[in-house]
Amino acid sequence: MPLLLTASLGCAVTVLDTNLVGIVLPTIARDLNATFGDIEWVISTYLLCFAALLLPAGVVADRIGRKRLLLLGLFIFGLASLACGVAGSAQALYLARAGQGAGAACLLAPSLAVIGHAFRGEQERARVWAFWGAIMGTTMVLSPLVGGVISRWLGWRWAFYVNLPACAVLGLAVVRWIPESRSPVPRPFDIPGIVLFASAMFTFTWTLISGPAEGWTSMPVLVRAAAALCMLGCFLAAERRVAQPMLDLELFANTRFVGAVIAMLAYAGAAQVMASLLPLYLQNARGATALEAGAGMLPFALAMLLLPMLGRRLGAFMAGYQILALGLAIVALGNLVMMWAASMPGLRALDVLGMAILGSGGGLLNGETQKAIMGAIPADRAGMASGISTTSRFCGILLGFASLGAVLSSGTRATLLAGLPRLGQQARPELIEQLVAGDVTGAAGTGGAMPAGLAALLQHGFETGFAHAFLAAAAASALGCVVVYGCMGGARS
Fold first, then answer.
1. CB–CB of 345/324 below 8 Å?
2. Global pTM exceeds 0.70
3. Which pLDDT does position 208 carry in this prediction?
4. Other C-beta atoms lying within 10 Å of the C-beta of residue 64
């Protein structure tokens, strides 16, 4: 039990950090005078490095030892957290967040491998992963509240400083309770695959983040988009030539596997991503404080915690692909209710209902997506299946956050550009950037209060932007539902 608890908490630290930062983002934007693009990079650099390095971290763990990499990951994560806490600019913060993402990959990959190595019986594994899921779910429920308390009484920098004692305690537990283990036949490094995959993800994310501010048809944005597609093509070509690739493209000939991966991407990009977007919605569109936003996240977080149990019960009556399709349909419904709520600011009860529905769909999908990917690949390739599953999850969150952030930013900008002249305000680029980032103090001027008309326009801009983002998420999850049912239903998953 100490081994399982230690390894599970090593994974939970990464969830705690993601959700804490989601709560304090508006405070960071105001304190560091950050643009909305800067805010997106604070989340995206972490997710980018996390997703890009998960598979390589698994290879390193097999080679140098899982315990050793786990300790190294704790050190990197703690050091990067300190750098985040002392950052004096948005650029310094998101560069430090990249280090956190690298440390998180070195935490998650060996932690999962330690659990898989220590518990091998089928029934034993079922109990172990249920315990792991409970730890992760509890962390998801508590972290928004912890983030609100930290922002209210300690300041946003403590959202990062809190990782330092956590890493120290976990390091002692790893030394005491985790035995060293490594693979007898370690996998080789796929250097071209790693570099091309990370480069394509970075360039595509850069395109999505820069598009609203620079214009989607501007030459720099179009060049970035073309470069991202080119690097993706090079990645696919390179993977076909490597003897032991990072991603075996032959797996995609299996429609069950394709459907399972799409389900994971849709779940992560339309439901799990809301752990970062909903706090922004509650604070920027609803005017909630960070503490109120943390409490307001409970309907979403509690549903995410409780619904996996229903998913296990449904397994006795429904096929796996049917549960996945049902979960994605519920996520689409939840996003549509959130779109309605954003468009109807007087009906705050819709926020609660929409978040509960969203969390219910996400909770139903949480365990089922992992199980579907693992079940679509032969047992002798379980290591690659686990890596693909986890990488797909974080790629989905990254692309979902960047895409929905672009929709949100574009919608908010359009509303502000149309409304500012009617208020006698010049639509200056720097004013637009401050408003879209939620920097009310900067937009109002030092020591001044924002005029009532401008405040109302800003709130309406955020409501419009979030309504568009929720609609886009609903469309993505509905499309995912159709594709998953078509791919996996025909194969009788």
1. no
2. yes
3. 92
4. 15
* CA 455 – CA 425 distance, rounded (Å): 13
Count other Cβ atoms within 10 Å, centred on residue 345.
15
Neighbours of 56 (CB within 10 A): 22
Tell me if 472 sits within 8 A of 407, measured CB to CB: yes
Neighbours of 183 (CB within 10 A): 16
Per-residue model confidence as pLDDT tens digits over 79-128: 999 999 999 999 999 999 999 999 999 998 888 888 877 877 767 766 78
DSSP assignments along 409-474, one per residue: HHHHHHHHHHHTGGGT----HHHHHHHHTT-HHHHH-TT----HHHHHHHHHHHHHHHHHHHHHHH
Distance, in Å, from the CA atom of 376 to the CA atom of 368, rounded to the nearest integer, reads 12
DSSP state letters, 249-274: GGGGG-HHHHHHHHHHHHHIIIIITH
Instruction: Give the tens place of pLDDT for each residue, 136-191.
Output: 878 888 888 899 999 889 999 999 999 999 999 999 999 999 988 877 776 777 88
Q: How far is CA 153 from CA 10, 21, 291, 397, 450, in A?
A: 26, 15, 9, 29, 25
Q: pLDDT digits over 54-82, tens only?
A: 888 888 888 888 899 999 999 999 999 99
- In angstroms, the CA 101 to CA 117 distance is 24
